[in-house]
Amino acid sequence: MLADLFEEGDAGPGSTQGQGPGNRTASVPPLPPRRSTGLAGIYNLGATCYLNSLLQTLLMTPEFREELFKLGTEELGRIEDISLPGAKIRIIPLQLQRLFARLLLLDAQGVNTTELTDSFGWTGSEAFQQHDAQELNRILFSAMEDSLVATEGERLIQRLYHGTIVNQIVCEECGNVVEREEDFLDVCVPMGGPTDLESGLTEGYGAAELLCGPNQYRCEICQRLVNARKVGCPVAEGAKFRHLPPILTISLLRFNFDYQKMERYKETGKFAFPVELKLGKFCENESAAKDTDYDLFSVVIHRGSTHGGHYHSYIRDVDALGHWTHPDQEEIVIPTDPATGKVDYIELDSPVELLHAILSRSGEHGLIVDQLCSELVKQTGVSWNKRFKKLYGPVNKFLKKHDDRFVYNPASNWVSLKTYGSWEDYSSSDTAVEDHGKAQEEEAKETTESGRKSRRPTSPPPEPGWCWFNFDDAQVRPIRMQELESQFSGKESAYMLFYRKKSMERPKEAHGIPTYCVPDRLKEEVEEENVNLKQQRLDYEEAANTIVIDVHFSRNYVLTDGALHPVPDSCHFMELSIDRRKTLAELRIAIMELGGEIVMQDFVLHTARKLPAGLHLYSCISGDDSAIIQSLGITTSHTILFVWNGKHVRGELVATGVDCEPVLLNIVSGNPTPVSERRGYPKNLTIGELKCILAEMTGGHVEDVKLSRLVTRDADGQTLHDLKVTDGDTFVIGDTKQDKVDTRSDAMFCLQAAEEDVYPVLTVQVNKDVTVEGLKTVIKLSQKTISSDVETRLRVDDSDHGISAPLHEQQSLSAAGLKTGTKLVWELGQAPQTSQITLTFTPNDPTSDMRDLEVVVEKQVTVAECLHLMIATASLEGDEWHLRQTNWCREAADILDDLAVTLEQCHLRDGDHLLLESGKLPPKGFLKLPVWLHPLPVADTEDIPTADTASNDDTGQENMTNFQTRSLGEVIISKESTLDDLKQQIMTLPEMVDAVPMQQFLRVRLIENGHLGTVLRLATQTLQRLKVTSSSVLAVQVLTQEENLDGNQVVLNVVERVPGSRTYKPPREFVWNLGRGADPASLRQSIADFLAKPVENIVIAKHVYDKHVWLMIKDGATGQKNVRRQKPQKSKKKGHHKVNVKLAPYHINDGDEIGVADRLLDLDNTDDFGTAEDDAAKAQQQTEAEERDRRKAEENHRRRSAVVDLGGSGDRKRNAEVGIKIHVANFT
């Protein structure tokens, strides 16, 4: 079984089966109708492209399809009876029948396989598991055979797909033939050697080998070693075909394993296969063999590598059920987007329209041409070169030619729309019709002229029954037979071949008739679905065209602060539901009926938008009364229409249009009259006019007004639009005659230039919607000593986490997380851009005194580029370095081992801390793991019990137990390797050679928090599944006897306290079996048995290493008062709850140290398990914590140059392989 062999696809626009078309709601788009091919695809349920490719092949195998349809409900049962007790319903063939009927007769572009996969028993995430098509072929056929036991279709798979091969060895002395007959479902052909199918079959089924010399064969007749002929190659063991099936399946073994590199790879070399295959010479009796000629009818294709890809299939339409058109003339369709429920599948017959539709979805900024081409493939399934290059040339030249629609920059390879707008808006306009007509006319003219010179005539369509189609999930398109040759080699190449015997001719009545042999019950079912689907499309079309318009009435509005605002406590708008296909006259009538008496006689309609400053009016809705609403630009719900007289609102003249759109500004002034307000100003307002308004507001003189946004006084003639002023910008009004600004607030600003000086305090007023850049502007205006040309930036000074990364200036204060009482540091330096993040890193050892360094990098730089930058910043040399992430407390975490991915893909965020460590990274997909040799715990011999749970000494290995912990070196191993592979590699280390007789005598553990931790179990588990990562450190122990631990066994260290003291005896290893119980009482009983002591005499506690405390383990209760109680597990007896010691608060795991005190020998001190070492360690931890806090405070103080207090005092991170399973009931 091979995993990760395809990419995930879309699941289609909702589910069709399981619910049925009649159960859909109007908000979910219905299934689109079949395209011009007349063939239906299958939607990808998440990761089922491998299943879709095989199902389409089975559907287009007429013999299989018709034999399946012959099975009636008398033998298979009825789906409706599945819930009846004792009912044996053969659900898999029934659902396969329904799926085939829908694929043949349902008027839909695609269907999905939900009901079929449910019949497989896939109820969880199986549809998202990655599997192999060859594996599925065998498992699905096996499930079908089990499902059809004791029916007329019992031998369906056997009759159509099974064949027989025979292996022969012929004695050259007596002619005796020894043979072994084997059944086969598919013929496996190895790759890598042969270059075509015939040579591959010759290697496996046509060659002969002479067994002579040391390889002589012992003949049973001759009773001695003789020369013999093995018919066929050694790999096939002399295989010859004895019986050939009607449908021949050939599996190309493209996936292999490189034992030197220890990784899988895909054979992408050329391997040709014929359309017509003759197998006579590969049969047992070539001269007598008949009916051995085959025609190719299906090719299952895999695109990608061993770690990811996608399946689709090229299939010949044997029964001429589809309509084949020339691929260049096929319509282009953008599929439905199931996530939004918006109809975005548009039949486009021009590449201009197609590119316009794609660019309109990307935003007004456009795309790089490469991204545009990728999106084209994603939306249509076909690249530009395959579809359009022959007719229209390269995409770059095409974009240049259509400069009336596209803006193309050759220098940056960037393209955008000349006039941005959604495709729906454009396609409904008169311009679109005119442009489309011109484009079609011009392209037709050029095509005609160039066609006389260079274009070859279009090839005639294939004969019925020989038309090929590409089935790619829900997309089905015609292809030429010549395209089969493109699948001979490369990352996208043939993976399975299906041939049918030439003698299997189809009846004429089956040609072009999809209902042929379909049972009446299935025809009626699908016909009902078609009726429901047709009605559903009508309902959806009506619902999709019904929009809700917000109608606002001027009677309830007033013009204030530069924009329209509703009168308080008034119903200023009403919602109007209307079909956008209706006329303007019908819209006006509907508004009059909606508003009643508040609508004036000759009213005017304007489109409007709600802006931060208030409501603003744009274009007038006018024209012929017969104009369609959609053509007037009213296309989406909640479009705002304003009803008024067209000039005044409550006597105030109202300006309309984009030019006078209001911008909401924050105005701050402290002299001569304190002012702080927010109001709207028209974009076409000049700075000079704004100054006049502000001077009148503050009571000052125009010539004395100075604005923070201005550079020179020459800007008075520029408008707010020219200066790119946006909503939320702050203008600080200063007085050109004043040297100081007298502002008042409850916020405090402290400027610090050196550690010893005392600095003045200045108060400023800020709003939470002001940007960081606006706050910085206010600070600069308040400090005359700082030049406006000096680059400065702000950081947050947090009492707990220290100085943060520099703030992005485009953020508002609220978006940056700043609240009242937040301290800010103002320092010299350039602020990061929106596309950048700030990272800190520590070179070498993170526990050293070396200062943290800081870099500002783009989010899209790769890990390799970031690594080189950090090496240069730290003034280090060489390339033997790598980066490691840290957790929230800055402890070492995972290594960034993929140098090609970007920082954003690694989920690195602003302010994250990395470690720059020495050492070169292992290859991608491999782990570099340090290995340490640890001794087994050794106790006094007089204390070693004779029970089976105790460790036995082995004098033959004393040299591997009496030593100190030491390093064995490092191993480099693949993440996909098993625990057995890891042990084998460890045994090859110099010190381990000949030290361990077998793998079972070697225990591998993880070192966790400096102590021996988890024991790695289950030899066949992969390291990735065992959660061995690049940050893991391994410990190995040489055992004195074989060990094979399971999940119910925990390896503990038991220490007995010396009575009357705070010391313990040497630790003894104890393997606790949880099968007898996992509660505290069971653990205490097991330890008592291990130590040969009465259970009532002992008290036990767990040593918590990192805190240097002992946690009492008491029967039926938690050991700490402050530990959150775990959810009790109900026992069979009422009123009793068992505590699982593997869960909170105890978390008993491998490597834990369990202390044991004897109540009889140590009466006065059974609750205190602490030692003098624990007391010293806790004191050391306290000292280290105080030292860290001191160093942190010094670092923050050193970097602090200015603190801004905003009011208040200021105190305060590859799936494991899973086999395919299809569950079948027992029908024997």
UniProtKB/TrEMBL annotation:
<dbReference type="GO" id="GO:0005829">
    <property type="term" value="C:cytosol"/>
</dbReference>
<dbReference type="Pfam" id="PF25822">
    <property type="entry name" value="UBL_USP40"/>
</dbReference>
<dbReference type="InterPro" id="IPR000626">
    <property type="entry name" value="Ubiquitin-like_dom"/>
</dbReference>
<dbReference type="InterPro" id="IPR028889">
    <property type="entry name" value="USP"/>
</dbReference>
<feature type="compositionally biased region" description="Gly residues">
    <location>
        <begin position="11"/>
        <end position="21"/>
    </location>
</feature>
<feature type="compositionally biased region" description="Basic residues">
    <location>
        <begin position="1122"/>
        <end position="1139"/>
    </location>
</feature>
<feature type="compositionally biased region" description="Acidic residues">
    <location>
        <begin position="1"/>
        <end position="10"/>
    </location>
</feature>
<dbReference type="GO" id="GO:0005634">
    <property type="term" value="C:nucleus"/>
</dbReference>
<feature type="compositionally biased region" description="Basic and acidic residues">
    <location>
        <begin position="433"/>
        <end position="452"/>
    </location>
</feature>
<dbReference type="Pfam" id="PF14560">
    <property type="entry name" value="Ubiquitin_2"/>
</dbReference>
<dbReference type="Pfam" id="PF00443">
    <property type="entry name" value="UCH"/>
</dbReference>
<feature type="region of interest" description="Disordered">
    <location>
        <begin position="1120"/>
        <end position="1139"/>
    </location>
</feature>
<dbReference type="InterPro" id="IPR057763">
    <property type="entry name" value="UBL_USP40"/>
</dbReference>
<dbReference type="GO" id="GO:0016579">
    <property type="term" value="P:protein deubiquitination"/>
</dbReference>
<dbReference type="GO" id="GO:0004843">
    <property type="term" value="F:cysteine-type deubiquitinase activity"/>
</dbReference>
<dbReference type="InterPro" id="IPR029071">
    <property type="entry name" value="Ubiquitin-like_domsf"/>
</dbReference>
<dbReference type="InterPro" id="IPR001394">
    <property type="entry name" value="Peptidase_C19_UCH"/>
</dbReference>
<dbReference type="InterPro" id="IPR050164">
    <property type="entry name" value="Peptidase_C19"/>
</dbReference>
<dbReference type="InterPro" id="IPR038765">
    <property type="entry name" value="Papain-like_cys_pep_sf"/>
</dbReference>
<feature type="region of interest" description="Disordered">
    <location>
        <begin position="429"/>
        <end position="465"/>
    </location>
</feature>
<feature type="domain" description="USP">
    <location>
        <begin position="40"/>
        <end position="502"/>
    </location>
</feature>
<feature type="region of interest" description="Disordered">
    <location>
        <begin position="1167"/>
        <end position="1217"/>
    </location>
</feature>
<protein>
    <recommendedName>
        <fullName>USP domain-containing protein</fullName>
    </recommendedName>
</protein>
<feature type="region of interest" description="Disordered">
    <location>
        <begin position="1"/>
        <end position="33"/>
    </location>
</feature>
<feature type="compositionally biased region" description="Basic and acidic residues">
    <location>
        <begin position="1185"/>
        <end position="1197"/>
    </location>
</feature>
<dbReference type="InterPro" id="IPR018200">
    <property type="entry name" value="USP_CS"/>
</dbReference>
